[in-house]
Amino acid sequence: MEIFKEFEPTVIEKFEKFSKILKEVNERINLISKKDIDKIFEKHIGDSLLYLKILKGKNICDIGSGAGFPGIPLAIVKNEWNFILIERNKKKAEFLRKIKRELNELNQMMSDLAINNLTDGKTVKIKDEFNNEYIPIYKVAFKKAN
Fold this sequence. Notes:
Elements: H1 9-26, H2 40-49, E1 59-63, H3 71-77, E2 82-86, H4 90-102, E3 114-115, E4 125-128, E5 133-136, E6 140-143
Parallel strand pairs: 1-2, 1-6
Antiparallel strand pairs: 3-4, 4-5
Helix pairs in contact: 1-3
């Protein structure tokens, strides 16, 4: 894909590592469709990177992260941004933790956070299970259509 030509080889290597782990874990839990497993770069990573054209903030929250799209590809490319990936399914959340451990360059990314309240949109906070603190959700959020 044309979009990948603009990235350094180290970024492509991180995408490849993410893709490899995704394929391995997808054998045990359904993260993405089996028919899409050989199209991770084209269908999932490439589509996720299209958000780079419209994002204005540097604090991003991906609600319902699932397999980590679009949050993880964006975090790989924009490692100076802050990402919070929220996933309530425990198996998928464990996958996100594994990605965080394996791609330790994503040190600003947090995963498996429980939504505390989603009321009027003025102040939304989530509980960080790692240090038991409530932190504000950021300005931009992605919600995938089912």
